[in-house]
Amino acid sequence: MNNDSSPTPNHRPGQLAMGIGALIVAVVLAWGAMDIPSDAGYAGVGPNFLPWVISAALGLCGVMLIREVLTGGYRQMEEPSGAARGDWRALAWVSAGVLLNAALITTIGFILSCSLCFVLAVRGLRASEGKPGGDLRQTVKDAVTGMLIAAPVYWLFTKLLAVNLPGITASGWI
Question: How far is CA 2 from CA 5, 67, 92, in A?
Fold first, then answer.
């Protein structure tokens, strides 16, 4: 092996553990899928179809990880710099938005919870680029933009597709 593709010795055990772990989870999921009845429902697919697909995908990923360990492990890569390194603050803001959306959607309704998610995600993305975004004026603009995106989505799902989404009022709008 040349120096560019030499494995990093301290990464091999972790990669091997991840591969074995993925295989174990795939087997456990497949074991559980055997208990689900396979009666075909919509489009000829039974309720055990998705667990089998996920089990197969996890198994494939596990096999590929183990194969990579046996053929050399993680390759040496140049450490990313600048914006390519990522930003944990941005991840935290976006994650907070997604979690709050899931937690509040039935309490404050689809449009407001999605708008809050939008505001927090945009704030995180701005922070990752080093742009300011915490002032009140920008936050209000982001909230209005979030509502302008969420309201038509809400209307399309509830009126056009007849999918119930949580709203604030008894009529369901908002």
Answer: 6, 19, 39
